[in-house]
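During the second half of the funding period, the structural biology subgroup turned its attention to how the target accommodates small molecules. The most pressing case was zinc ion, which had performed well in the primary screen but for which no bound structure existed. We therefore specified the complex as follows and requested a full 3D prediction, including the ligand pose.
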Amino acid sequence: MVSRYYSLLRKVVASERGRAVSAAFATGMAAVCLFGLIGCSGCNGPSGPPKFEAPPVRVTCTTTIVADAVKRVGGERVQIETLMGAGVDPHKYISGSGDRKKLDNAHLVFFSGLHLEGKMADLFEKNHDRWRAHAVTNTIDHAKLRKASVDGGEHDPHVWFDVPLWKSAVDVVRDSLIALDPAGADIYRANATAYLTELDVLDKEIRAKLDTVPKDKRVLVTSHDAFEYFGRAYGFEVIGLEGVSTASELGTPRRNELANIIGTRKIPAVFTETSVPTVGLQGVLDDVKSKYKHEVKLIGGDDALYSDALGEEGSSGATYPGMIRHNVNVIVEALTK
Ligand SMILES: [Zn+2]
């Protein structure tokens, strides 16, 4: 058993807040994760989640985006811990020493799923009874999912950029909370209904804004392929510099191809993301300038797009609707001027 977990976990090559780590260090950290997350055989650790008796429901979420849905549905009945904080890239996350405690202490665990969390999600799926872990994307009709274009999972995990599609995550959170805490059912249902209505309004609002971008300018060039669902839902062509996962590298042929697309089509702006390093993107822009004599705006800093994590408390991307609005405002501004 333990060796199977070990082989899973040693593949969790990751870094926190975009810092690169050597493969050796990552493997070492994965070994720490092994004992940190699942304990050792023969230890007298807990074999299942704590019994729920009365609120607050202790919930541990992997990403800030998932946690935001839980916050809205659970309200004051839930107490939330998040493993991956603001700005953290989930594709490269290394489990920290406090994660096991947060997981073992939780009545419910929510993760995004569709391989967003890499091998950590495999652990949750294979050990559902230990942590009562739910993938918030697990009820989405597979016909609505995009295929993953690179290694990793079967489907593209970035479903939250299609607002109507993300609504199903809210359903999963509501139903899981009701199953654990039926006494709170009316509250969870009312909160979820209000939030789903708010998401319908958000969807209409951003659709109207995005429709103001001229058709030939509807191209979104970003650091990694997080925005394919966004493109499909709102009518944008999306060009990611890397694959779906930020763990893949940008090879020279792809770099040349991208420079050619941006340079010959005179794409006005490309976008950086808060949770992804910009090294690959800057290299392509240098090529565009030298080979195609085309100056491209690099949208970054406070305007960087939120992709796989919300922003810090107080920032425009601190909530899911805030993150979506921020991105849409930045995209519309950069592509219409
Ligand atoms: Zn991503």
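Two results from this model are relevant to the next phase. The chain is about 45% helix and 10% strand. Strands lie at 57-61, 78-82, 108-111, 133-135, 219-222, 237-240, 269-271, 297-299.
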